[in-house]
Write a sequence for this structure.
């Protein structure tokens, strides 16, 4: 990430209506100039997720579950927030294998709630299998 990433983001979304809408919808930018080439590679291959396995070992995270929610995103969950945080956050989950960054944030919330409501060993197995597919057979619908 670029050292002045927050200033660059603020400038981008202030001066470009299309980018502002994209960021409001997904909390990401497809062609984010703040991310270095190495960062893009790590993100596209999901290698940037490896350090989270330390959180799993420390029992702060699960391998499968809803994505961690950062403070400024809590309001996006509304009444569903308490339901979603009732489980440990996961490295992978239904959202990540259902379109990932090409889905709106609203869809992410729906998928996280769907996972919480339908959690089962079979669903976890399906998510693990689909996660391997996303990692080893990536396409343009993956991370950016």
């Amino acid at each position: 990430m670029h050292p002045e990433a927050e200033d660059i983001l603020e400038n981008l979304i202030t001066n470009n209506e299309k980018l502002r809408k994209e960021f409001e919808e997904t909390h990401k930018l497809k062609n984010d100039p703040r991310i270095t080439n190495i960062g893009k590679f790590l993100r596209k291959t999901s290698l940037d997720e490896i350090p989270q396995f330390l959180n799993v070992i420390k029992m702060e995270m699960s391998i499968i579950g809803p994505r961690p929610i950062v403070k400024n995103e809590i309001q996006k969950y509304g009444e569903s927030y308490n339901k979603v945080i009732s489980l440990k956050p996961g490295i992978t989950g239904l959202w990540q294998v259902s379109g990932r960054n090409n889905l709106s944030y609203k869809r992410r919330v729906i998928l996280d709630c769907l996972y919480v409501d339908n959690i089962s060993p079979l669903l976890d197995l399906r998510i693990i299998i689909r996660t391997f597919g996303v990692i080893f057979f990536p396409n343009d619908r993956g991370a950016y």
Q: What stands out?
A: Strands lie at 62-64, 90-92.
